[in-house]
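Quick one from the shared queue. A colleague (R.T.) flagged DUF1877 family protein as missing a structural entry in our internal table.

Convert sequence to structure tokens.
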Amino acid sequence: MSVDHFWRRLPGQALDACSPEELGELVPRRRDLRYDRLAADGLALGVRQTAALMELALTENGLHPDPAARLPVYGGAPREAGAGMPVLRPEQVAAASTFLRDSALGELVRQQDTVLARRVAQLDSAPPWSESWAARVVNDLRELRDFFAGAAAAGDAVVVRESEGIPR
């Protein structure tokens, strides 16, 4: 099963200048040539099947009282209630970037091994939790850390297109 979750960097003012529909058109829906170009420019990031696992590694069991732990994966709120995708304003992007930079991402995944294994078991066609899964989640978290660092340095906002498939 291929499930994608996307992040798209935009200048902060674009959040207020675009309608929810226009914002939606700026965020990839699938991995394709458009996504490849955006990703090569550091403006988009996508993961397959790991978004909910990344979120759990960052937030499960109260290990991270910092509210910024919830921002990187599903954070932000739709710009308008009931419309659009979650958005992170530049100050939220900066907070998420700082949290990711200051976190030992590999250790967070190791600490949540049992929780992550249970979540993977909920997938119909996925292999069981393993070192390979753990390596994927850590790699995706590191890519997310680098993505947010670039967005924070540029003062950008981030729009999130949430995946479906792994229950949160």
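DSSP finds nine helices and five strands in the chain.
The two ends are 17 Å apart (CA to CA).
Added to the table.
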